[in-house]
Amino acid sequence: MHFFQNDFYFVLPELFLFGASLSLLMFGVIYSTSVSHGKPGLMKVMSWASIVCLAMTLGLVLNTPVHSTVVFSQSLLLDDLSTFFKFLILGGSILSILMSVQYFETENMRNFEYLVLVCLSTLSMLLLVASYDLISMYLALEMQSLCFYVLAASQRDSEFSTEAGLKYFLLGAFSSGVFLLGCSFLYGLTGLTNFEAYALFFAQQSNIYQTSDWIFVQIAFLFILLGFLFKLSAAPFHFWAPDVYEGAPTSVTAFFSIVPKVSIFGVFIKLFFCSFYELALLWQPVIIASGMLSLLVGAFGAFAQKKIKRLLVYSSIGHLGYMLLGLSCLTIEGLQSMLAYLIFYIVMTVHVFACVLALKDLKTGQRIRYVEDLKYLAQSQPLVACAFVLNFFSMAGIPPLAGFCAKFYVFFAALGASLYFFVAVALFSSIVSCFYYLRFIKFMYFHKETSVSVEYVQMDQQKAWMISITSYLLVYLFFCPTNVFLWSEKVALLFLN
Amino acid sequence: MGDTFLFFFFSFFVLFSAFMVIRSKNPVYSVLFLILVFCNTAGLLLLLNLDFFALIFLIVYVGAIAVLFLFVVMMLDIKLAEMQESIFFYLPIGGFIGLIFFIEFYFLFNKEFVPLHLETLSTGSTSMLTLQFYVYAFWAFVLYGFSAPHFAQKFRAYSTHFFEQLRGLEHQAHQNLEYVIWPTYVDSKTPVEALGQVLYTYYFYFFLVASLILLIAMIGAIMLTLNPHRAVRRQQVFEQNARDFAKTVHKIRTLK
After folding, report:
1. CATH code of residue B13
2. What is the span of the domain harbouring residue B65?
3. What is the mean pLDDT of residues A478-495?
4. B68 and B132 share a domain?
5. Which range (A361-375, A413-427, A473-487, B75-89) has the least confidence?
6. ipTM of the shown complex
7. Does residue B172 sit within a domain?
8. Distance from A348 to chain B by nearest Cα, in Å?
9. Using the beta-carbon criterion (under 8 Å), do A75 and B203 form an inter-chain contact?
10. Mean pLDDT of A56-85
11. Nearest alpha carbon to residue A12 among A85, A94, A68, A78
C-alpha cells in the first residue's frame, strides 16, 4: 500500500524546510543550553543557517519538476502559480533575515527561537499558497498567524512588543474565528471544502441568486472576505496594524510588511479567482469598497504620524489599496498588474526597511524612531539619504522610478475594466500621499542648518548590497519592466486553465 | 440493564453536581462540581454511542474551560461571606428562565415523543426498550407528575404496551431458537474509529499540520516565558503554602 508515495516527492521543498526547521530547533536547544560551550547566543549562526536553509528550499522550489498536480487527497495544489508565490515568499524571508542580522547583534537579542519561528512561518506560507482545500487553508493560515503572534511579542523587555503581540493575538484570533464561521457556512450550504469542487458547484448553480440560501451565501462570503481583509490589514480592518507593526521589533516589522502580503494574496487570488469567480458580482463590491477605503486611509492616516514605522504601515495600507484595485478589475490585465505591483512593492519595502534598520545613532545608541530624527541624515550619510529619497519618490509614483510603472499599469487595467470612480479616488489619494513622502525629503534636505552632527553606526555589508541592488532595481524596472510584466502575465494567464 | 443503571447513575450525578455547583459555598468547590457535571455528561454521551463527542466534551470543557474558571476563581480571591447573602435573590429571574425551559420540554415531549414511542416500540432490542422506557418514565415524572389524570392514562397505556412488547419479544426468542438479531450483523464503526480511519490515511496531512501548530504553540510559550539568561524570582512553593495568613502582617510596636 503506497497511497501517497509520489506525493512526498512533489512536496520535497516543504518537507526539506520542515526537517531543516526542526534541525535548527534541535541545534539551538542543545547548544544554547550547553554549559561546556558557555551557553552561546547563537543568533548569528542561526540566522545564517536559516538563510542557507531557506535558500536551499528556494532552489528546490525553482527546480521543481511539477507543473500542475494535486497531492494529499486534494489538500494541496502544486502548480506554476504557487511556485511563483513560493519564490516571492522565500525570497522575502531570506532578505528579511539578511537585513536583520546586524539588528539581532546590536539589540542584543538572544532568543534563537525567533529564527526557527521565521522558518516555520515561511513553511506555513508555502503550504498556504499551495492549499487547495478550505481545511488545509485554514490550518496553514492558523499556523502562520500563531508564528506571527509570537514573533510580534518576541522582544520581551519592551512593553510595546508585548502589547503588539497581545493585540495581534486577540484580534487575529477573532478574525480567524469569523473566517472559520464563513467557511462553515459554506460547508453547511454545499457540503464541500475543495476549491475545485466549489468552482464546479457554483458554475452549475446559476440560479443560486433566487434560492432562499442566497442570504447564507452572502453571509458566508462576507465573513470569509472579512477574515482575509483583516489578515491583509486592508482599510476597515486596519486598526491593529499600526500598533502591532510599530510595537514589534523592527526586524519583525520588516518581515511582516514584506512576506505575509504575498501568501495571503496568493491564497486569496486562488480561492476567489478559481473557485468563486462565478459569484464575482457578489464579492467585487466588497473589494472595491475596501480598496478605496485603504487608499484614503493610507493617504490621510499617514498625515498625523510622526514615527517612521507607523508612517510606513500607513503607506503599506495605501499600497494595499492599489493592489486591491488591480484585483477588483476581475480581468487578466488587472490580475497581472496586481502581481506586478506586488513585486514592485516587495522591492520598495525591502529597500526602505533595509535603510531603516541600518540607522542607529553611534553615540546614544538610539535607533531612529521619529521622522524628525532624519534631520541630519543628508549631512552624515548622504548616500543613505539619497537611497531614501529614491525610494520615497518611487513610492509616491514619480516618473523615472519603478513605483510609477506599477501604479500606471494598475490604473491602466482599472480603466480597461471601467472602474472610473475607483481610479479617480486612487489618483486623488496618490497625489495626497505624495505630500507625506515629500515630508521625509523635506526633513532630510530642507531643515534649518544646525551645527549638531549625528554619526550613525556603520552599515553592514549585506544591507549595503541590498540597498544598492534594490536602488538599482528601482531605476532599472522603470526602463525595463518587461521581465516583471512577462512573468506576471504568465502567472495571471495560468488562471485561465 | 447495565445501560440503564449507568444512565441513572450518570444522570443522578449530573443533577446532584449541578445543584452543588450553585449551592456550594466555596467557589473552588463550585468549579470542581462543574467539572464533575461535565465528566458525567460525557458518560451520558458515551451511553448514546457518541464517543467522539464525549471525548471532545471532556477535552474542551474540562481541559480548557473549567480549568480556566478554576484559575480565575483562585486568582480573584472571592470572599466567602459575599456568596451567602443572596440565596433567593436570583430566584425570580432564575425561576422564570427555568420555567420557560420546562415549558419547552413539555411541548417537545407532548408533541414528539409519546406517540412516537408507542408506535415504534416493536422495533429495537430489549435493553434499548428498557432504557427508552426509563427515560420516558423519568421525564414523565419530571414534567407531569404522577397525579395528572392525562398522564396517568397515557402512562398506563404506555407501560402495558411496553411490557406486552417485552414479553412478546422474550416469548418469541424462547419459542423460536433460530431468532436472529439482525442489527448485530451490521458491521458498524464507532465515530472515533471512523474518524481515525480517514484522518490517519487520506487526510493525514491535516493531522500533520495540526501537530505543527501545536509545536509552534509550544515553542512560542517557551520563548515568551522561559528566560535562562536573567536572574528570575522563582516562586517558593513550600514557603508560600506554609505561610499563615493571620501572621503575615505584624504589628511591631504601637505609636505613642
Report:
1. 1.20.120.1200
2. 1-111
3. 86
4. no
5. B75-89
6. 0.91
7. yes
8. 31
9. yes
10. 90
11. A78
Residue B147 resides in a domain: yes
**Residue of B216, B219, B224 to mutate for A, most A C-beta atoms under 10 A:** B216
Residue B194 inside a domain? The answer is no
- Range list of H helices, chain B: 2-23, 27-47, 51-57, 67-76, 80-84, 91-108, 114-120, 126-143, 149-175, 191-199, 204-225, 237-242, 245-248
What is the distance in angstroms between the Cα of A18 and the nearest Cα belonging to chain B? 9
Q: A33 vs B228: CB contact, 8 Å cut-off? A: yes
In terms of Cα–Cα distance, which of A358, A352, A387 is closest to A471? A387
A136 closest CB neighbour out of B201, B206, B212: B206
CA distance A151 to A102: 18
Sequence-ordered list of residues with C-beta below 8 angstroms from that of B201, at least 6 positions apart, any chain: A3
Per the CB < 8 A criterion, the answer to whether A74 and A133 are in contact is yes
Q: What is the Cα–Cα distance from B159 to B165, expressed in whole angstroms?
A: 10
Cα nearest neighbour of B198 on chain A: A73
- Nearest residue to A489 (alpha-carbon basis) of A80, A59, A126: A80
Q: Is residue B2 domain-resident? A: yes
Taking the C-alpha atoms of residue A51 and residue A96, their distance in angstroms, rounded to an integer, is 10
pLDDT one-digit tens code per residue, A217-262: 999 999 999 999 999 999 889 999 999 999 999 999 999 999 999 9
Sign of CA dihedral B30, B36, B40, B46: positive
Residue B21 sits in the same domain as residue B81? yes
Contact across the interface for A72 and B213, Cβ inside 8 Å: no
Q: What is the pLDDT of residue B116?
A: 43
pLDDT digits (tens, 9 = 90+) for B70-80: 888 878 766 65
A82 CB contacts (<8 Å, ≥6 apart)?
A: A129, A130, A266, A270
Is A461's Cβ below 8 Å from some Cβ in B?
no
Q: What's A132's DSSP letter? A: -
Q: Are residues B103 and B131 in the same domain?
A: no
* Nearest residue to A221 (alpha-carbon basis) of A176, A141, A286: A286
Partner-chain residue, chosen from B202, B216, B220, that has the shortest CB–CB distance to A73: B202
Report how many domains make up chain B.
2
pLDDT in tens, B119-147: 444 444 555 556 666 666 666 666 555 55
Q: Which residues in chain A have their CB less than 8 angstroms from residue B217's CB?
A: 146
Q: Quickly list DSSP for B171-232.
A: HHHHH-TT---GGGGS----HHHHHHHHHTTTTHHHHHHHHHHHHHHHHHHHHHH--TTS--
Task: Determine the Cα–Cα distance for residues A93 and A64; give it in Å rounded to an integer.
Answer: 19
Whether B44 and B107 share a structural domain: yes
- Show which of B57, B77, B111 is a domain's final residue: B111
What one-letter code names the amino acid at A289? A
pTM, rounded to two decimals: 0.82
Q: Are A62 and A82 in contact (CB under 8 A)?
A: no
* A154 and chain B in contact, CB less than 8 A: yes
Is A112 part of the contact surface with chain B (CB cutoff 8 Å)? Answer: no
Instruction: Tell me: do B9 and B99 sit in the same domain.
Output: yes
